[in-house]
Amino acid sequence: MISEKDIWQLLEEVKDPEVPVLSVIDLGIVRSVKTDDDKIDIIITPTYSGCPAMDVISMDIRLKLIEKGFRNVSIQHQLSPAWTTDWMSEGGKQKLKAYGIAPPNPKQQFCKEEMFRQEAVQCPRCNSYHTELISQFGSTACKAMYRCLDCKEAFDYFKCH
Amino acid sequence: MSTTQLFSYTLHLADNALILAQRNAEWTGHGPVLEQDIAITNISLDLLGQARNFYQHAASLYNNFNEEEKDAVDKFIPRLWKEYNRELQEDDLAFLRDEHQCLNLLITELPKGDWAHSILRQFFFSSFQFYLYQQLQNSTDAQLAAIAEKSIKEVNYHLRWSSEWVVRLGDGTEESNQRIKNELADLWMFTGEMFIPAPYELVDVVSLKTDWIKKIETVFAEATLEVPKQSWMQNGGKEGKHTEHMGYLLAEMQYLQRTYPNVTW
Prior knowledge:
heterodimer, A: alpha/beta, 4 helices
């Protein structure tokens, strides 16, 4: 027997394969954990529809639990309510910044379809807000590319969603 | 809402996303600059993810159908799969259906053309998806509603990006302006199909047209482009009648699964 609380704690050790400083808990993609005798039911939600990390994450969760001796595990994907960067933990945001990726701004600021809207994104290296968008799309679905006009470094921004 | 209708509609939504994902993916390594190459292929990836969600839903609906329901949608089921003796899966629907079984809009299958062509097509399509998914979120089918709720957040970015590019090209240089005007003349006749309802559609697409036109007009005004007066429109994709480009697209996309059935890597 393992408690649900212990499983949540174990999941802290499962990292996002594309942003390895973030755990699946930091990302806010674990929606529920239930135990019933030796059976464990976990519900996760994808960040983006086409995110290739999701299959790997499911597998890594399974492997982590097998490693601790739990084999009767069901992992379901659930689309609604849709994942938002607002579910990312504060700790996760700090870890992102330390890793060199600007953490997402609060969603209400900017998440619309209107053209040419500017968003204040802080450079994760020198903390300047004097930055500009290079491209709304970056190396993974969840990131945009920015450059800092003060320290001149280009950086990834985990865009709000 | 009949189960046949729900299954066909889910396929239509999946095919739209998959076929445009395939076309946009042709830009991989060919974009005008690296950042925009990455942008349009990111959009391709989002669309592919949406297509997977719809195909998974369609396959799961089919696997739970009774015999009568299965017969009713048999014309959409790939012949090759019937020899496999296993449950229907998302990949069977994507990689084994023939041209006349595909229900995507014609605009999604047109060749990628030049940058202006792909940009304008994306703008027309993303504007359509934006209003469509808003409605689909209210679907009585919980899974379709959930996919729409998830996908519309991605479509926000597609719409913003393609709108900005329409303005950049339309209100850019003499050449970019001429190019997007040429593409507008070619593409416009493929936009009408979005609003001509097919019997299986569960969203009233006619009602989306007002908002769609308003969006086009707003962006075109910034881009110094005019909405064409031409009213004759192509259609047929929703019923499986495609342009001459579709066969070539499927041949390339489906080649591996047809040559080596059930191959994985």
